[in-house]
Amino acid sequence: MADVASAAGVSRALVSIVMRDAPGASAAMRDHVRVTAEALGYRANTAAQVLRRARSRNVGVLFSPRFPFEVEIVEAMYPAADALGHQVVLGAMTAQRDLDRAVDELIGHRCEALVLVGLDRPDAWFEQVRGRLALVRVGRVPSPAGVDVVRSDERRGVQAGLQHLTELGHRRIAFLGGGDMPGAAERAKAYRAGMRRLGVADHVCVLAGDYTDECGAAAARELLANRSEATAVLAANDWSAVGLIAELARHGVRVPQDLSVVGYDDSDLARRTYVDLTSVGQDPAALAVQAMEAVRHRLDHPEAPPIDAVVEPRLEVRSSTASPRRRRSLTSG
Amino acid sequence: MADVASAAGVSRALVSIVMRDAPGASAAMRDHVRVTAEALGYRANTAAQVLRRARSRNVGVLFSPRFPFEVEIVEAMYPAADALGHQVVLGAMTAQRDLDRAVDELIGHRCEALVLVGLDRPDAWFEQVRGRLALVRVGRVPSPAGVDVVRSDERRGVQAGLQHLTELGHRRIAFLGGGDMPGAAERAKAYRAGMRRLGVADHVCVLAGDYTDECGAAAARELLANRSEATAVLAANDWSAVGLIAELARHGVRVPQDLSVVGYDDSDLARRTYVDLTSVGQDPAALAVQAMEAVRHRLDHPEAPPIDAVVEPRLEVRSSTASPRRRRSLTSG
DNA sequence: GTGAAAGCGCTAACAA
DNA sequence: TTGTTAGCGCTTTCAC
C-alpha cells in the first residue's frame, strides 16, 4: 500500500479510503489512486484488514462438498454475502477432516458467524459453539432447537408431491423414507399427515431407505414381493427414486405407465434427460440469501429470539409421473 | 494470547512458541501452557499470524465444487498440505463468480502458491498469474505449457480400457469423445494411438460428445442408425457412458450382452450398484499429494524447470463389460 | 529456557 | 479533502 501511496503521491490513509470505497475522497483522486493501484497490481492484504478492523466481516460456511445440494447453497452464498458486505470463508468437511478441526480453522480466521449447511450434531454441540460465534443452520435441518435456522418447508414440499399425484388420480401412494438422513424425519411425518388430510390414511405405506440407490432397489423388490397395490411412490430423495425405478425396470415394471415416482431435491440427477424425474425442488439460492440475512440479524441483535425462516419448495413435473392405469397390483398387471 | 500468557504466568512469546510447536520450551511448560490455552478456548488469530510471518504458508486451491472429481482432489489436499506445513485456502468457482474474482481473493489472503484444479485457460492467463504466485495445475490438464503440472496418465488410462476390452475379445471398439472438455483431447489421441498399437486402426470410430448423458444418448442413436458393427464403446466420461447405456436399453440393446461399455473417471455414478460401470479411475489422493509436493518444490526452487508429474490411473472392472457375442451389427442381432 | 521489544500492513479517529 | 498517528495480535530477534 505504501508503494501505491508514494507512486500516487498521496498518503497511505487516502489509498485505504479509496480502496475500500469509504467516503472522504474526491472523484478525481479516486480515479488517480485506482489507476495507480491497478498499474502496480495492488491488492489489499486481507490479513492486515481483518487484524485491524473491529469486525472481521468474515462469515464461515461449513459444508460437505460431496453433497451437490449443499454445494448449490454455498455457491449462492457468495453473492448473498457480497450484498451484505461480508466475506465468505469456506470450511470443507471431509471424511479425513472432522468438524472440530474445520470450526477451529474458521475461528482462527476470526469469523463473526458460522453458517452450517445441512449439518446435524447433538444440541450440546451447537450450544458450545454458539458461545463463541453467531450460528445459523441452513438446509436440511431436522428441527429448530434454540439456534437460528433457515430451512425448506418440508411439509409443503411433501404436500406438493402428494397433491400432484392425487390430481393425477393416485390414491395408493407409498413413501420411500430416508432413515436418519437430513430432512427425512420431517418428510416422513409430512407424508403421514398429508395422507390423512387427503382421506387416504389407510393406504399409508412407508418403505425404509437412506438416500442411496441401493435402498431404492431394495424398496422396489419389497413392493414386488408384497404384490403392492401402490400406484405411486413418493421418495424422500432423488437417488433412491432412481434406484427404485432402475430395479423396477429390471422386473418389467415401467415408469410412469405402471407406477408413478416422485423424487425429492430436484438434483442434477433428476434433471438429466434420461432420468427426467418429477421431483420436489428446494431453492438453494433462497436458502443462502435467507441464511445471510439471518447472520446479519443475529450479529445486529445478539439477544433477539431464535430465527426460524422457511423457504418454499416447488414441484418440478417431469416424465416419471402419470395417471394410474386400472389394475390391482404391480405383479398382476 | 495475552490472556493465556497472564493466566499461565508466562510471557506472550512463550505462549507463541508452544502454540506453534516451535523449539525453545520445556515439556512441562508446554503442557502447562497448552492446558491453560485449552481452558480459555484460545485459538491463534490467523490474520495476525499471516501478517507477521515472512511467509503466509497459505496455498490457494481453485476448483469448481460442481465437479465431484475436483472435490475429491480438494478433499485430499487438506492432509497433503498439513503434511507439508501449509494451510489450504479454498477458492470456489461458480457461475456467478469468475476466476479473476476468486484469484483476487486468494491473493488478498497472501497465498504463496495457487493450485488450479482442472481449470483451462489461455496460456497468456497462466503467464500473467505466474508472475505473482507459484502456480500448479492439477487434474484433467490438457497439456503442460511451461507451467507446473500434475496429471493423470491419460494415455495409460485409455490403454488400460482398450486392453481390457481386447482381452475380452473385442476388436471393433468405438470411442465416445468429450469435445473440448478437460482431458478429452488427450483421451481421444490415446484412443487412436492405442487402436493403432493393437493393430485395429481400421476399426477406429470416434463419436462426438461433451461429458453429458445427452451426448451419450445421441451417440447411441448414431450407432443404431449406422448399424454399427462396434462390439464395445470406450467413453471419455462416466456420464456419457451412462447416457449411452440408457438410450441403448430403450432400443432393446443390452449391456454388456450386446455391447460392452467402459466409462472414464470411476465417479460415484459408476460405483452405484444399479449402474455398476467398468471405468478408468483417476487417483485424486495421489494427484493432491503430488500437487502439494510440486508447490513445495516450486517455492523452494523458483527457477527450477517446469514440473510434469504423472499419476497412474487404474481400471475398475465392473459389470458393463463382457466378451462380445457373435453377430455383425447392433441392429441385426 | 524465558522475557522485552519491534514491526508486519492496514484502519479509524483525529488533526490540519 | 487530505495527512498523521496509534495500535490490531502475532512472530521473531536478541538479551538475559
Give structural notes:
The structure is a homodimer of 333-residue chains. Chain A has 333 residues and is α/β, with parallel strands linked by helices. The first copy, chain A, folds into 3 domains: 2-44, no CATH class; 54-152 and 283-312, Rossmann fold; 154-277, Response regulator (Rossmann fold, 3-Layer(aba) Sandwich), CATH 3.40.50.2300. Helices cover 44% and strands 16% of the residues of chain A. Chain A is built from 13 helices and 12 strands. The first copy, chain A, has helices spanning 2-8, 12-19, 27-40, 46-52, 68-83, 99-108, 123-130, 154-168, 184-197, 213-225, 238-250, 268-271, 284-300, and strands at 58-63, 87-92, 113-117, 134-139, 148-152, 173-176, 206-207, 232-235, 260-264, 279-281, 308-311, 314-316. In chain A, strands 2-1-3-4-5-11 form a 6-stranded parallel β-sheet, with helices on both faces. A 6-stranded mixed β-sheet of chain A has the order 7-6-8-9-10-12, with helices on both faces. In chain A, strand 3, helix 7 and strand 4 form a beta-alpha-beta unit. In chain A, helix 1 (2-8) packs across helix 3 (27-40). Chains A and B meet through helix 4, helix 5, strand 2, helix 6 and helix 10 of A and helix 4, helix 5, strand 2, helix 6 and helix 10 of B. Chain A binds a DNA duplex (16 and 16 nucleotides) through residues 1-2, 10-14, 16-17, 20, 22, 24-26, 29, 44-45, 47-54.
Which structural class fits the helix and strand makeup of chain A? alpha/beta
CATH H-tier superfamily of the largest domain in chain A: Response regulator
Percent helix of chain A: 40-55%
CATH class of the largest domain in chain A: Alpha Beta
Total strand count of chain A, please? Answer: 12
Name given to the CATH architecture of the largest domain in chain A: 3-Layer(aba) Sandwich
Which protein chains make the most extensive interface, counting residues with beta carbons within 8 Å of the other chain's beta carbons?
A-B, 48 and 48 residues
Strand content of chain A: 15-25%
Q: Structurally, how many domains make up the residues of chain A?
A: 3
